Amino acid sequence: MKVGFIGLGNMGAAMAANLVEAGHDVTVWNRSPDKADALVETGATLAQYPADAAQGDVVMTMLADDAAVEAVVFGEHGIAGAPAIHVSHSTISIALAERLAATSGGGFVSAPVFGRPPAAEAGQLFVIAAGDSALVDACQPLFDAIGQRTFRIGDTAPAANLVKLSGNFMIMAAVEAMAEAMTLAEKGGVDRKLLLEVLTGTLFGAPIYRTYGEIIVEDRFRPAGFAAPLGLKDMTLADAAATRYGAVMPLLGIVRDQLRSAIAVDGEDVDWAAAASSVRHASGIALKGQ
Amino acid sequence: MKVGFIGLGNMGAAMAANLVEAGHDVTVWNRSPDKADALVETGATLAQYPADAAQGDVVMTMLADDAAVEAVVFGEHGIAGAPAIHVSHSTISIALAERLAATSGGGFVSAPVFGRPPAAEAGQLFVIAAGDSALVDACQPLFDAIGQRTFRIGDTAPAANLVKLSGNFMIMAAVEAMAEAMTLAEKGGVDRKLLLEVLTGTLFGAPIYRTYGEIIVEDRFRPAGFAAPLGLKDMTLADAAATRYGAVMPLLGIVRDQLRSAIAVDGEDVDWAAAASSVRHASGIALKGQ
Amino acid sequence: MKVGFIGLGNMGAAMAANLVEAGHDVTVWNRSPDKADALVETGATLAQYPADAAQGDVVMTMLADDAAVEAVVFGEHGIAGAPAIHVSHSTISIALAERLAATSGGGFVSAPVFGRPPAAEAGQLFVIAAGDSALVDACQPLFDAIGQRTFRIGDTAPAANLVKLSGNFMIMAAVEAMAEAMTLAEKGGVDRKLLLEVLTGTLFGAPIYRTYGEIIVEDRFRPAGFAAPLGLKDMTLADAAATRYGAVMPLLGIVRDQLRSAIAVDGEDVDWAAAASSVRHASGIALKGQ
Amino acid sequence: MKVGFIGLGNMGAAMAANLVEAGHDVTVWNRSPDKADALVETGATLAQYPADAAQGDVVMTMLADDAAVEAVVFGEHGIAGAPAIHVSHSTISIALAERLAATSGGGFVSAPVFGRPPAAEAGQLFVIAAGDSALVDACQPLFDAIGQRTFRIGDTAPAANLVKLSGNFMIMAAVEAMAEAMTLAEKGGVDRKLLLEVLTGTLFGAPIYRTYGEIIVEDRFRPAGFAAPLGLKDMTLADAAATRYGAVMPLLGIVRDQLRSAIAVDGEDVDWAAAASSVRHASGIALKGQ
């Protein structure tokens, strides 16, 4: 297929590379064009403007936040009026997803993903797709190139964003739960690493507990895999959705405060798992290495 | 080995049966002696008093709460002065575990378990053991008969209780997280069953999410597998441990309120997973079947 | 002074009337011009466009939210380029206050007020003013006409908005505290009216406890003096400020959820004091009259 | 009247002195008898045992916690079987108040007080009394000697304890609200002293906001007027009441965590107002003098 890809950060560059490798005709665009060099070497074409990447079948966007998406869609030389189906992989607000669905010329599919950069490189992301089913069908070969499995959420595009925000909230909820349990254990004389072994060896054998559990045990919050301010941004999008739809979410309130605290006390450069540092500090436990 | 077993509820009866089947010489006691009938038929001996079950190598207790344990240990004809090693499987307070450790005549091992009745029947519990290592070694054949794996937490017996309380807190934390995410999804137009499929199919593939997730999706809170008042009791023990050790646990505060609310609104006979009903009610969603 | 007044709701109409009565030359504008009839009868002039009300010394705005303020300032025939000092009385976001301060032609003063409609009618509001001190000095005669006292918060205009948001948060915090204490008392057999008498008769003799306490005792949430969705809007502005400045505010998180719950369960037309209904419902207490 | 007084701490000694001054025949007892010296000099009699102070019309107890009250009532030479009416001023659990009411020989009145030591010295306490009305009538002259006003809560003695616990919760709720608002203001560039002036000068003119507000503005947490561990004990009694009666109290959960954090981070010797330090620390603000 003839596909454009806009946004070549850690995630986007890996996803675009997999599209190239799968044999698609890929045109890329990034605000800093040098990020495209490696892709161009493997056969991708560099576009001058976002709109240039949206003249084929599909254009995918993978960007940091609402503002970045709005810039490439509605900004000068944006993709707003272009003929390609717009597939949005970014974690954005429900409100922006609705606006994109309502204004897209070529059709709109929301397709946020679960997975960190190594999963993106391996083509092992999970794709959460929603939108008109004919459009999603058309995009399925592309999703197969970047992910291990696609979940279809229905015809209403923003529903996929809601699922993505819910999933990110669940991750932070698990981080908070581990942080509190480890703090209780440690202050009561039980090594937190041992507690994690028991948890993951019994009822909590999911990847999320292993991956984040080790980060928390080691206080390994730098360098950030996913920075705390981005995590706070996502939780604020979830909070806006909760207000919009009338959902009561006290645990969401807690994790937002923990992220604010991590940023205020530990700095902007920590991983979002540093939300776990807040109950440590509040309980009088120093972080390792401090 | 010559072993006594005190407390023949759903969990205890299944554990005692596995000890009999493994060839041990088992003497049982229960406040309502008729609960022992089936075990006696398979070869167990019925004791008249708790102390009579504590004259062998080991006496195990599996009871509902601190008061029940205090009664069989320190009450009339209790096991307090008996020669057997006391292995406590009950979910009890840190304070009582300390008292039992300090006063036991034959030695004391704390060995709470993870697993619901079907796991107990299958001999597939997880045993969390702490105490003098020679004592734990001596009990290992018994743990092998009731469980699939034993985690050793160290020499201080109450440490095992702290791990058990932490684990139960983690379960309630996962229930709260799912309840909030499903409420957000549902109010935003996404079926909660579909959300659960995405979660368990991606990052949250642990048994706890499958088991409790289905209960929450279906609002299947009756009959109770583990009743909400018992869950609240456990969370209150965790809270007492947090005060004792100086741990800050805001999420624990939330789940305790959700359990109080479930009991106040839905009744005492609901499963502890009904903690999930609180954010439903607060968000204006009726439970299924209401 | 020659002063314009934009926004003639319950609060604004009363404030404008006091300006007329104090002898100022008042030009008014409202989206629905019929709201100006009574004022015109007493001597005010009706403007065709917002900008027409901003040609004198000062133009005051008292509107429902950010969007309404943006419309009269930056919209067609807005006051953005007009010569008058812009005094903003509305409860708006820190971000909008900054933008207004940065773009105002005639100078900008933030002057949100504390007080409900009866206080506005009596000219007994509290004015919270911030901005260039010469500008605030110039506006002082106007503040004296609408309020009983002016608090000056400094040179940076948005600081007054931050104080206003903090004050509204404090009101909701007191509502939540009373709601929880009354629920505890009532479920324990103590009449909530009696509890309120003890509280206001001892340590809590402030107006806020008397006024809101009686509303909560009586579950008198309709008609709304200040509607719950507006209260939630204010708490969301406070939340945005907390994120912006890095402040941890768990109690703010709670009151936001209580407001969401009140709206979801009781409806959009309840007073913001209906935040108190959430712990009632969660504790299994029916509201009076239900 | 012939009255005994047990417990001569800061509060109790001042209360007993006012009884002597009002002309009553006062017998005192304290675990450390030297605390009675000043009272004996003014005419009080020193008892050898608690029971010796309970042979007259009334015996009052003012002690630190449940354990201390249990010791003087049910311990050796305790007042349990004595003929005097037992008036309990201590802040104790609902459960203990019920037990005292059920077992008292001479009748039982619960009469906890609001007020700090200076109010006790001035005879200006608020007395919260509950119990059989004939008994309360009999004690009224004594309450008049120690307090400025008596609130009668009804016939069920523990109801007075519930009101006292509710009031202490309200104080901590106000502390938390001020701490969060001041933290938000300070991080946004508004002096917290100025914010307090606005709050107490407008809607929050109650003594509680002035007294605690100044403590919080100055971070004046030492020496403790009422120590944080005692405050945490009271909040834990309120929590036990919430569990017992089925009341949902999320704000109570927060203040308990803040007190745990203050003790863990700042030490056991801080005032309970140091609960305010927790959001400061979490938001990256250092306490004054640190």
UniProtKB/TrEMBL annotation, chains A, B, C, D:
UniProt cross-references to PROSITE patterns, sorted A to Z: 3_HYDROXYISOBUT_DH
- Molecular function GO labels: NAD binding; NADP binding; oxidoreductase activity
- Write out the catalytic residues in the record: 164
Q: Which domain of life is it from?
A: Bacteria
Report if keyword DNA damage is assigned.
Answer: no
GO terms, biological process: organic acid catabolic process
Keyword NAD attributed: yes
Q: Which UniProt keywords apply?
A: NAD, Oxidoreductase
Q: Ranges for the 3-hydroxyisobutyrate dehydrogenase-like NAD-binding domain?
A: 159-276
Q: Where is the 6-phosphogluconate dehydrogenase NADP-binding domain?
A: 2-154
Matching entries from InterPro entries are given as:
3-OH-isobutyrate_DH-rel_CS, 6-PGluconate_DH-like_C_sf, 6PGD_dom2, 6PGDH_NADP-bd, HIBADH-like_NADP-bd, HIBADH-related, HIBADH-related_NP60_sf, NAD(P)-bd_dom_sf
Write the protein's name: 3-hydroxyisobutyrate dehydrogenase-like beta-hydroxyacid dehydrogenase
Q: Per the UniProt entry, what species is this protein from, by scientific name?
A: Sphingomonas jinjuensis
